[in-house]
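INFO worker-7 received task bundle
INFO bundle size: 2
INFO processing item 0
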Amino acid sequence: MPGRPGGAGAAQRDTGSQTALRERNTRLVVTALGLNGPQSQAALARHTGLSAGTVSNIVRELAAAERVTTSPVVTGGRRSTEVTLAPDRRVVVGVDIGRSHLRVMALDASHEPLGRADVPLRAGHEPADTLKLADELIGTLLSEHGVDRSRVPLVGIAIPASLDPVHGSVVQANVLPEWAGINIVDATSEAFDLPVIVENDANLGALAHAVTGRFADVECLVYVKVATGIGAGLALRGRVYGSTTGISGEIGHTQVVENGDICTCGNRGCLETVASTRRIGAELTRIRPERSGDVAGLVDAASGGDPVVTRLLLDAGALVGRALAPICNLLSPDVLVLGGPLTRVAQPLLDGIGQSIRQRSLPAATGHTQFVLSDLADDAEVHGACLLALRHALAEGDDLISK
């Protein structure tokens, strides 16, 4: 016989509802720790939307089950408790495939890197050869840290191309034309014999800066990567913006010079034709024939204080800022982070960007914006690839922690 309202049947449903709610709240806390790393209970309350009391109870239960560790810290002059996931040997792996580099990193659930490896790539490298090399780097990295491949739930891939969000095929590959049209998800998962998730490298640079470090809690972060190509990633409240077409942040194909050189996309005067590392290097070699125009040569010239490369970087920055100014008027970002292979010597480039944006945007829109160089250097994109894999592994129910 069905139970009366308020009788045994209702009590059972209430108990089930409470259990489901507690499990949901616990997962919110675990996921927030997995995505954002060690943090205070107050930060956990902000990230999850739960009350301070609920977070405190959940942390106490997780600590008793040895799923998290807690330690006293002082933040802003106040005592608080920092909470950290207790990781096991499972890790996520990130792979960053560029025009001239390949990087691999492994990350555990507490956001601690287990190691990284990188090798140079020749221009025009083919997908099959590069993916085979990446698989070898992954195997070596895991072996060095005693992690069996079966303990890797997901691999994140960063690639300088736009991707079809449904099929995973490369739809815009000006930097890597040899990769155009291939299904990168199928190709990488087959090469690595592991589940993969793939994203544009600038988007992952934005994710890395929005989740870790000093800008982890900003509302709007724009990441700009100046390299062979020029792209931007947008993170809103710690989440990367992605369009339904898979194409976003392609600022390198904004026209900044009327009737300029023809770009690889077929248009004239695109930003990449005047401000990419290739163009800056070519100009340096034209003016200083004795200097190499590759990235190493640019870094060497800038480190030595060569006024020519300083001028070239400042002028390139002014052009990048011209393309970014309308975006800043639209978004009024809290921070704009400049990354790419020139980061160590890119202060003139950043100065040019900031000056140009402020000349062309509303003071109210950019007066508060911070213009900074990436503090993740060459690791921004590969770190973001690890975080992407970690985020999706958590969302799919793998806590990546001891149970």
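INFO item 0 finished
INFO processing item 1
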Amino acid sequence: MAPKTTNLAIVFADIAGSTKLYEILGDQLAREKVAETLATITSVVQQFNGKVIKTIGDEVMCTFSTAEDAATACCEMHESVEDVNNDLQGNTVIAIRVGMHFGPAILEGGDVFGDAVNLAARMTAQAKADQIILTASTVDKLPPVLRACTRFIDRAPIKGKQEEIDIYELIWQEEDVTRMATGMLSNNRKPEVKLHLRYRDLDVIISKQRSSIILGRSKDCDVPVREKLASRQHVRIELRRDKFFIIDQSTNGTHVRMDSGEDAFLRREEMPLNGNGQISLGKSFIEGPTEVVDFVYETS
């Protein structure tokens, strides 16, 4: 049969840190849990009209006819894999990372080939545990409800591509918390919290009136930072239920230094900001960054 080219959503779902699982759980239990995770992913793929193309070690490659089915399945994969952890003791957690791209692919001999497959695989390589990473062109294929659950990560170089491409994250977990934060009303008056951000001549306040801002190299950011290592839209700080969170969405990561002496490094991760400190985009504090953003936590 001659090869057939058709538009497909290509998805790779990979168990994050599977090698370490064998060290922690032991060979027998780890093997059982990996097999259970792959079976769970396969079940979800079938549930959403997808097709498992192959399993490569601890990774599943699958296809869907629509970007909507693929995105919905990706979210359900994460939800379902949480059940695999129910009988695990301690802090051991099995998690997956997922990459996705929609585009023309070649079907031949029960396998799938082409640039769409390569892009989907590279989106998976960009993802961290508990993330779904997809291309901007795939976001455009999603219905409005799912598109609203995506956020821009970075414009990043991809191996084999001459130009950088925009990559996005599909939020499957955080969105419900954010909706609760904006939708809940309370009759009990609570102290209002504010986070002051100071950079050069800028003084920006995050509060209920302005609950989210973007820092980055782009002049269109709420706080444009003149740091060469910064991404165009490097990091977001948002207020959720009276708590501030910093969410890195960059290539080079974000360094946070608290006045308490604690240093943290984030790359495609988030952490709460519970006090005062400094933020450096892309450059560690050991390197003596000059483009530093100060933040001060206040209640009133």
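INFO item 1 finished
INFO post-check item 1: DSSP finds seven helices and 19 strands in the chain.
INFO post-check item 1: The domain at 178-299 is CATH 2.60.200.20 (Tumour Suppressor Smad4).
INFO worker-7 idle
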